[in-house]
Amino acid sequence: MKPDRPPRPLDDLERLLLRQSFRLPPREWRDAILNDVRSFAPAPAAQPASARLKPASLLRLLRALGGSAWSAAIAAWLLVVALNHYASPSRSLDRPPMPPLAPATVADLRQQRLELMAALNAEPVFAPSQPASPRRPSAALPPTRHRRHLA
Amino acid sequence: MPPGDIEDLYDAHAPALFAFLLNFTRDESDTRDALQELFRRLAARPSLLAGVRDARGFLLRLAHNLAVDGIRRRDARRRAHDALAAQPAELFAPSTNPTDEDLRALITEALDELPPDQRVVLQLKLWEDLTFDAIAHVLDIPLNTAASRYRYAMDKLRARLRPLHDALR
């Protein structure tokens, strides 16, 4: 910024003009303007800053994150997914099969079953199932995928 | 911004902003609108003045921009300027001395005849005591333009008020 020249003395006309004082704003303007302005003042922050994030500012924030921040976020996400996967109950299905029972154990179990049937004098509870009537495949429907595989 | 702060701002700057706007627009309604909008913006965004070293210069610039926007909205620029030059306005404070009243009436008429661009430069230079550099910043014009507008304005006033000027010598 270039400095102005040293101020020169005012001439007569400038001094004459300078002696004139401007009007003041009407008094009623003050209250009217200040009352109006109060309705435009931002409300005090009652909610956390995170809740006041606008979409545009959130987008700017995400853009502003550097590559390392994104890498850290992705790594944390992968860790959560992995932990969730290993902690889920379905993982029990993937466990290796149990070792085969010892022959003595099998024999014991057979013996217990025979004793139980004898004790109950077991008769079949359910009627023997009827052989299923052969169903003609519907001509209108294509064979299921399972049948296609079997064919 | 706490209510007390905006009131303090109003008391400190409204008289100068009012005179500046009235001298520029020559219309009390436009002056009021611009002044009100200015303080609305200050209240809505208190951070506007954060880090501002020269609050008066900043507010004058904001006032000028708002007045220009208001004029643009109201009418086409040329018609607005014609209207500004034509509208009388009571610019100066009333005086009980009839001689002073006559003098002020003459000066007001002479100022009315100036283009608004020269009028505001004259006001900022004389009554606000701004440097040409500051005036250039407030009005967003080159420094040389500010200086030349002031010179043209003073030349016109001198010619217009020559009888009075000579009588006062």
Overall description:
The complex is a heterodimer of chains A (151) and B (169). Chain A is an all-alpha fold and 151 residues long. Chain A is 49% helix and 0% strand. Chain A contains six helices and no strands. The longest helix of chain A is centred in the middle third of the chain and has 21 residues. The radius of gyration of chain A is 45 Å and the shape is rod-shaped. Chain A starts with 11 loop residues before the first helix and ends with a helix. The model of chain A has no long low-confidence stretch (mean pLDDT 72). Chain B is mainly α. Classes of the chains: A mainly alpha (151), B mainly alpha (169).
What order do the SSEs of chain A take from the amino end to the carboxyl end, as H and E?
HHHHHH
User: Any low-confidence stretches of chain A, pLDDT <50, length ≥5?
Assistant: none
Through-space gap between termini of chain A: 91 Å
Number of strands of chain B: 0
Primary descriptors:
heterodimer; A: mainly alpha; B: 169 residues
Short description:
The complex is a heterodimer of chains A (151) and B (169). Chain A has 151 residues and is mainly alpha-helical. Chain A has helices at 12-18, 27-38, 55-64, 67-87, 103-120, 145-150.
Summarize the SSE layout with pairings.
The complex is a heterodimer of chains A (151) and B (169).
Chain A: H1 12-18, H2 27-38, H3 55-64, H4 67-87, H5 103-120, H6 145-150
Chain B: H1 3-25, H2 28-44, H3 55-74, H4 77-86, H5 98-112, H6 116-126, H7 132-139, H8 143-160, H9 162-168
Helix pairs in contact in B: 1-2, 1-3, 1-6, 2-3, 3-7, 6-8, 7-8
